[in-house]
Each structure stands twice: as C-alpha cells, then as structure tokens.
Amino acid sequence: MQTQSNSDKRKLLSALAHGSVFISALVLSIGIPIAILAVSEDLIVQDNAKEAINFHLNVWLIGGIIAIMSFFSFGLAGFVLGPIWLILHWGLSIWAVVQCLQTPDKSFRYPFIFRVV
User: Fold this and answer.
1) Tens of pLDDT along 17-30?
2) Domain extent listing, the chain
3) Which of 29, 31, 53, 88 is the most buried (most CB within 10 A)?
4) Per-residue pLDDT tens digits for 66-79
5) For residue 105, what is the DSSP state?
6) In a 10 Å sphere around its CB, with 0-12 CB exposed, 13-18 middle and 19+ buried, how is residue 23 labelled?
7) Which of 18, 86, 9, 61 is nearest to 40 (CA)?
C-alpha cells in the first residue's frame, strides 16, 4: 500500500513540476518546481523539478531572443518564430508530463536545452 502511495505522489509532483511550464507567462510559475525541489525528499522528483527549472529558464531565454529579433525585424521574426517556439515549448511540456505519468521511476530529460541547475 505504501509503495502505491509513493508512486502516485511521485507521479503527481513530477507532472506538476513539468506542467507548471504551461503558466510560464507568469514569472511566478518557476516557483512551483523550486518549491517541489525544496520540499521533496524523493531523488526522482528532485531531478524532475531541476529539469523543469532548467526548461523554464530556456523558455524565457529563447522567448527573449525571439522578442529582440522581432523588435529589430519589425515583427517578422516574432511572426515566424513565435508560433514555432510556442508549439515546440508546449509539445515538449506535454511530452514531459505524459512521460512522468507513464514511467514514474525514471526522471525526464528535455532534449537540446541548457542546464543551469
């Protein structure tokens, strides 16, 4: 019984950490995986929280780069790259949540991101 409860808790916290990216327009959304990292003692949940923090930072960095490019190209870069980045960002987030729910014993790693934490 205890193992099932730990597995469900791991699934929930890991999915919540990665799912917080869906509200990344709010700067406070990074606080969710930071809080999970601080509170949880499970190593897999902590790894997922660190990966979610890194993904938040990457989303903001690339969004900032697209915004600067858009400013200098009079909106053209934002018009072209913005939707592509939005679909990629949401797609990777959905993939992470699904993987955390399907394989709770393995931490998820985003491809092609800079890892700071």
Assistant:
1) 999 988 866 778 89
2) 2-102
3) 53
4) 999 999 999 898 88
5) T
6) exposed
7) 9
